[in-house]
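Ticket #491: bound-state structure for S-adenosylmethionine.
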Amino acid sequence: MSAAADEPTPFVYDEVAYPAPLTPAQTPDRMRAVGLMYGYRTVECATASVLEIGCGDGLNLVGIAALYPQSRMVGFDLSHAAIERGRAAVVEAGLTNVDLHVGNILDYPRDGEKFDYIACHGVYSWVPEHVRAPLLDLIAAKLAPGGIAYVSYDCLPAAAPKREINRFLVERTRHIDHTDTRIWEAIKLLGMITGNQAEGSRLKAQLDQLAEDLPNFDLNYFFHDWLADFYDPVSVFGFSKAAAAHGLKVAGDAGLTDFVTETLGEKMQDYLKDETDQAKRADLLDYARGVQMFRRTLLIRADAPPPPATDPINELTFEFLGEVERGEDDKGAFAKFTRGEAFLVARSAGDIGVLQALEDVSPNELTAAEIIRRTGLPEAEAIASLKKTVAIGLALPRATPQPYVVVPGERPLAGPLVRTMMASGNWTVTLRHVKFMVEVEPTRVFLTLCDGTRTRAELAAEMSKRFDSEVGVEKIEAAIADLGPKRVFTA
Ligand SMILES: C[S@@+](CC[C@H](N)C(=O)[O-])C[C@H]1O[C@@H](n2cnc3c(N)ncnc32)[C@H](O)[C@@H]1O
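RESOLUTION: The complex was predicted; output attached.
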């Protein structure tokens, strides 16, 4: 939906709440980590300033603010309702370093404070050109020298069928005033066209994927994403050109998806070798693979100094995601690391060593130096494998040292945000920025009691008192064993 001064009222995001997910890739921790992997050094997260443009209810900023009390978070959004929800969460979380306000990209003040990190997630492809250019202009105006910005958007060519499906659905359902009825009419239409695709249909892959995804979608998300009145994906090349017009340049991809090129044919790999410009390289890959529908591009100021020659990856910490399975086939022994649809059949000492080292300590994390020490790999080989595992989605890079403990000490201490939010609601944000729902009341109470003053025996006694039934220490141990891997305890 466009957001011009003549924005229809009520604004579509006021009418239908967007079910904001937490997006760890837009946290300063990840932006700094990925920036370092591309050779750019941004400021430390602990004291960083962060601006989020179109922040929705600002819950990402709430989670970050709680992790770094000395940081400063500012977020704005055109939706009054979203900002109201966010402000309530800020009060509930007892935070004083988050400022959420209603604002419009078009006339948001360009002067004044600059920010070390800027995030704009899920906005660019859903606003028209007369908002997109000011959005990039705003980023350029507010990005501190040496800062990094994250902008996500649906990208071409893979999102082209989605654009056509969006146009079709919007046109066929535009006359329906009632949102739920409109959503269900769109779903009915999707069912009909999916079931009738001809042999060799060009739309089929996208429609089949959507049919598979739909049952897992929040319907409000489906409405804003697939039924948006305005939707226009852009190629990464087109995006980078638009950004360049505002003095910004592409530093890399927040998901590092461009590091893995092994699956490409030899000729393509050769062709790609000569392309050093990050945006052109990403664009080539998007056309070569044809599958990447969504991009999370990192931008820096065009006048930023070039990356240093040394590889600063050694400053990072890595987290393993996924599962491992070992086996042997006609090519020899392998270890298959899997996470959802992402997988790597690792055969080289580098890939196996790195992933195994991470898996061994999971849910704890390892620094690159520790991985090199444990695997005995030459640094360059370990680093190449680390980049690959991150790009595939089997590991996450972190710029801040592990802030949680899996097994808490004598007097268990849950993170401050966890304790505060558990006292009043059924969800919180973990110490690694993941939304954590707790439906069971005793667990919520237990987490609020873990304030570092009680031993396990004292926690058992307090829980027994609160719930008027005997809670033994073994139950407390079991709860800690269950909650520890969720990253809610700190030292
Ligand atoms: C898809 S939602 C994404 C929200 C949030 N960034 C997230 O990822 O959860 C798009 C957001 O952009 C906001 N938006 C759209 N046009 C805007 C404008 N001109 N100025 C500020 N916010 C705008 C909407 O209100 C909405 O909250």
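RESOLUTION NOTES: Residues 3, 13, 18, 20, 23, 54-56, 77-79, 82, 104-106, 121-123, 126-127, 131, 224 surround S-adenosylmethionine (CB under 6 Å).
TICKET STATUS: resolved
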